[in-house]
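Long-time lurker, first post. I've been practising inverse folding by hand and with some scripts of my own, and I keep getting stuck on stretches where the structure tokens seem ambiguous. Below is the full token string for one chain I'm working on. Before anyone asks, I'm not after the true native sequence, just a reasonable design that respects the backbone. If someone could post their per-position residues I'd love to compare against what I wrote down in my notebook.
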């Protein structure tokens, strides 16, 4: 059965997934994104469109969770949102599927600069 979360559920899932990660040393970024931040990620193209709609409520899945966690890990590693956008745009033609991240851990990518930050363990 496929998992689908509302935006507030996605925030809770992200908080749980991010809790075990090292805390950001840069005080300018939040360790756990809120609903507004996740909406912003979608607006600037860092997060895929919702997987489905239930009336006017957007529904998100494991791919979105993996994307949010990956964004936060890249920020913790010192990447700006602009740099993350460039990495995502560069990888999209190769069908980077971050949805694999929450289904047992992301397989390491072939890019060394992404390998460390895309390791996620499903709880």
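-- Answer (accepted) --
I ran through it position by position. Result:
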């Amino acid at each position: 059965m496929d998992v689908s979360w509302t935006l507030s559920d996605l925030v809770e899932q992200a908080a749980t997934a991010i809790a075990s990660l090292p805390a950001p040393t840069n005080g300018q970024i939040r360790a756990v994104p809120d609903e507004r931040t996740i909406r912003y990620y979608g607006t600037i193209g860092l997060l895929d469109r919702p997987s489905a709609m239930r009336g006017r409520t957007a529904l998100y899945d494991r791919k979105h969770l993996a994307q949010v966690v990956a964004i936060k890990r890249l920020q913790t590693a010192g990447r700006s949102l602009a740099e993350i956008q460039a990495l995502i745009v560069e990888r999209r033609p190769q069908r980077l599927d971050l949805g694999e991240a929450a289904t047992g851990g992301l397989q390491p990518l072939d890019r060394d600069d992404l390998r460390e930050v895309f390791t996620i363990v499903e709880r």
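A couple of notes from the structure itself: The chain has five helices and two strands. Residues 93-123 have pLDDT under 50 and may be disordered. Happy to go over any region you disagree with.
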